[in-house]
């Protein structure tokens, strides 16, 4: 149950951040500038989501009176810890992965693509230079 709660909050926070970064990119900002400005602007909503959920779960985590409440207390403690780590994930790791996907990978694909096309051209030239003079028709001698 707590895992589903955490997944929902993490995905929502990441969507809030990345959608704003995409809006800034459409306005002409570079990847780095859009991530910095988007992180600064969306920092407060992301932190408010984590803090309000954590504050709502603190009484459940601290005040467990009977056995039924112990399970709820453990669940609340895990969710509070998960919110702290997911907030870090949203604010640090998501922008790093976004940068890798939108700047480093396309550059890598361009380099690999240009090398592949160069190799294909060289291979095509090698194949045409190895063809026999009779247009590829070789005589077959049957003995």
What does this protein structure show overall?
The protein is mostly helical and 143 residues long. The protein has one domain (2-124): Up-down Bundle (Multidrug efflux transporter AcrB transmembrane fold), CATH 1.20.1640.10. It is built from three helices and no strands. It has helices at residues 2-26, 31-62, 67-129. Helix 1 (2-26) packs antiparallel against helix 2 (31-62) and helix 2 (31-62) runs antiparallel to helix 3. The longest helix has 63 residues, at 67-129. It is elongated and about 95 Å long.
- Shape, principal axes of CA atoms: elongated
How many helices in DSSP terms?
A: 3
Average pLDDT confidence is: 80
* CATH top level assignment: Mainly Alpha
Helix amount: over 70%
Give the CATH topology. Answer: Multidrug efflux transporter AcrB transmembrane fold
CATH level-four homologous superfamily name:
Multidrug efflux transporter AcrB transmembrane domain
Uncertain spans: none
Number of strands: 0
Q: Describe the biggest sheet? A: none
Determine the strand fraction and express it as a percent band: under 5%
* CATH architecture verdict: Up-down Bundle
Structural class: mainly alpha
Estimated radius of gyration: 29 Å
| Helix-strand topology string | HHH
Query: What is the count of structural domains?
Result: 1
Spatial separation of the terminal alpha carbons: 81 Å
